[in-house]
Amino acid sequence: MNVLVTGGVGYIGSHTCVQMIEAGLNPILLDNLHNSKLAVLGRIEKLTGKKPTFYQGDIRDKAFLTSVFEKENIDAVIHFAGLKAVGESVEKPLEYYDNNVNGTLVLVDAMRDAGVHSLIFSSSATVYGDPASVPIREDFPTSATNPYGRSKLMVEECLTDFQKANPDWSITLLRYFNPVGSHKSGEMGEDPQGIPNNLMPFISQVAVGRREFLSVFGDDYPTCDGSGVRDYIHVVDLAEGHLAALDKVGKKAGLHIYNLGTGDGKSVLEMVAAFSKACGKEIAYQIAPRRPGDIAECWADPVKAQQDLGWKATHTLNDMVEDTWRWQSKNPQGY
User: Where would I find the NAD(P)-binding domain in this sequence (predicted)?
Assistant: First the structure.
């Protein structure tokens, strides 16, 4: 099965490609390398023995996408490509709507022209806004507290309308919680360009000496220790969720919506403590003001994905921090 993977050189995309190759699928990677590096392709080859087909270009470029669909006999698309930093989205909303919303519309238009009717979209738990309660089920109301989340929600609404008008399509919306961790080999991991926006790479860069301290944004939330609580999910579990969705509903017409999370919330300070234990050193941190758009707590009810897809997160918190440390200590400057 030939699967076009947009954003395939990125953190989640690259880990998913490794799992796909090991499962006998043929991922065709497409990436503009805005927040990823070509060196990833060599790591994928090292881990799987197969160098994936790669096209460098932008999903907003219809002519480029058309040429890829003409060259490759594509059966389905997994769509990871997009901008993903909450704070940056507040400063650059136009860029987020252009990349995330417009980019997806151009991609779906190219898919329609090529007769490819199966799409798995990389959505986010941010579409639940500030939830009234936890754990969060797929039927909870959606809203957004920042332009990043709003861009994901807009795409979900566009795809929902499109699937209604094109009922032969299979469109799957996977709402991720907080991906962390790395491939167990330490050969692949999260390597953000510039200052990390996510917790785990920031912690690991402090541990390896690249950053002086971690800023913990807010210690006055109504949580166990005052810091924000999130549902951290190992990136390999997340990758396996995409394979399960492709297998179970990728050829089944309809709109399919699933949370991908563990169902277990951990606070920022709990994550810091677990990482300190894994790397054997204290992680320096300072309390900073809350960030605009952040919420107190957020974790998934993952039962629907278990029931429909036969998928469940299996990696523990120790796996998450130990795998991250193995990656960062082996690759202190990233790729």
Answer: 4-324
